[in-house]
Write a structure and sequence with these properties.
single chain; 327 residues; alpha/beta; 6-stranded mixed β-sheet; 5-stranded mixed β-sheet; 11 helices; disordered C terminus
C-alpha cells in the first residue's frame, strides 16, 4: 500500500504521522537500493520496524556519493548543495516537483497565510550565482504566486532593494525579505532602515563570504540595522523537500508531515533526550521518492512540543561515526 500526496499533506496528529511514516519506510526499504543496503548493514528489516523510533536514519553524506532514489522515474530536477570550493556536493534527484511545490506552499500558508497577501523580495546572491538551488526554485515560485509587481530577486543592487523596501513601507504593504545571512548583514551594517511592515527571514549561512557567527548575535545585528523587533528564519536543505520556520524566537516549527529529533553525538544510532544537544535527525514525508529519514550534520536540541533549535554543525571528526557505515 502506498501513500498519495493528499494523504501526506493531510496529516493532523501524531498517530497519523506514525502510520504514514511506517508506510513510507516500507516503500523506501523496498524501492531505495541505497537505503535498503544501509538498513541491512544495521541488520534492520521491515519486520522489526513497528514504531517510529525503530526507523533508521540515513547519513546525509550519502547524497554526496550515491543516487538516493525510491523510484525508477527520471528526475524532473536535480537540486545540488552549494558546497565550498573543491568539496563534493549533495545531489537530490527529484522525480515529482509537484510534491516539492505542495510542501513549500502548504507550509508557507500554515505559518504565514496566503502568499498573495505579500510582496516577496529575495536577497540570495550566492544561490543565484549557481545552478541547481532548491531555495531559488522555491523563492522564484513564491515570487510568481505573490502576484505583486514589486516582488523579485535582488543580486547585488542594494540601492534598488532599499528604494523598493521604503516604497512598500510607505504603502503599508506586507512584505517578506528572504535573504542569506551574509547579504542581510551587509544590508543591515551599511544602511539604517525601519521596516515596520516587513518580515525579515534569514535562510542561514555565510557561504564563505563572512565569518560564521552564532544565530543570536546575527539576529541582534539584523534587528538593529533593519529596524525590526524579530528575525524570522527558514530551515531547509538540498536533500529535503520541506522547510521548518522560526517566527522570531530561534525555535523552529515543522509542518505536520515533517518531524525533527536528535541523536547522541557519540553514538549515531541512539536517540537523544529532549533539550539535550545532539545530532539533528529529520523525517520529511514529502521526500517520498528519495529518502524521508535523514541524519543531518547539524547540531541542535529538540523539544517536547515538536519544535527544535539549531546550535551549529558537526566538524569532520565528530561526524565520522556516521560515515563508518558506508556501503
Amino acid at each position: 500500500m502506498g501513500l498519495t500526496s493528499d494523504s501526506i499533506f493531510s496529516i493532523t496528529n501524531d498517530s497519523g504521522f506514525e502510520t504514514a511514516a511506517l508506510l513510507v519506510f516500507n516503500h523506501q526499504y523496498r524501492h531505495n537500493q541505497i537505503y535498503r543496503s544501509f538498513c541491512n548493514h544495521l541488520r534492520v528489516s521491515p519486520q522489526q520496524v513497528r514504531t517510529l523510533k525503530a526507523i533508521p536514519y540515513l547519513p546525509i553524506s550519502f547524497f554526496k556519493t550515491k543516487k538516493v532514489v525510491s523510484t525508477t522515474e527520471a528526475p524532473k530536477a536535480i537540486f545540488t548543495s552549494s558546497g565550498t570550493t573543491g568539496a563534493s556536493t549533495s545531489k537530490h534527484y527529484v522525480s515529482d516537483l509537484s510534491l516539492y511545490e505542495k510542501s513549500y506552499l502548504r507550509a508557507f500558508e500554515r505559518f504565514y497565510g496566503d502568499i498573495k497577501d505579500y510582496c516577496i523580495l529575495a536577497l540570495l546572491p550566492s544561490y543565484l550565482e549557481r545552478e541547481g538551488s532548491s531555495l531559488i526554485y522555491m523563492a522564484n515560485d513564491l515570487i510568481k504566486k505573490s502576484g505583486n509587481k514589486k516582488s523579485g530577486f535582488y543580486l547585488n543592487d542594494l540601492d534598488k532593494l532599499i528604494l523598493t523596501l521604503k516604497r512598500l513601507e510607505a504603502a503599508n504593504t506586507p512584505t517578506i525579505l528572504l535573504g542569506v545571512s551574509f547579504a542581510l548583514l551587509d544590508l543591515a551594517e551599511n544602511h539604517t532602515l525601519n521596516l515596520g511592515n516587513t518580515i525579515v527571514m534569514e535562510t542561514g549561512g555565510m557561504k564563505g563570504r563572512r565569518k560564521e557567527i552564532i544565530r543570536t548575535e546575527l539576529h541582534k545585528l539584523l534587528k538593529k540595522g533593519l529596524g525590526v523587533s524579530e528575525i524570522h528564519s527558514e530551515y531547509g536543505m538540498t536533500e529535503l523537500l520541506s522547510q521548518a520556520y522560526s517566527l522570531g524566537d530561534g525555535r523552529f516549527h515543522c509542518p505536520p508531515w515533517m518531524r525533527v529529533s536528535t541523536r547522541d553525538t557519540e553514538d549515531p544510532l541512539t536517540p537523544q533526550q529532549f533539550e539535550k544537544t545532539g545530532g539533528i535527525n529529520i523525517i520529511d514525508l514529502a521526500n517520498y521518492n528519495s529518502c524521508s529519514f535523514i541524519a543531518t550534520q547539524d547540531l541542535g536540541k529538540s523539544y517536547a512540543d515538536g519544535s527544535f533549535e539549531i546550535l551549529g554543525r558537526f566538524d569532520n571528526a565528530e561526524v565520522r561515526g556516521c560515515n563508518l557505515m558506508v556501503l
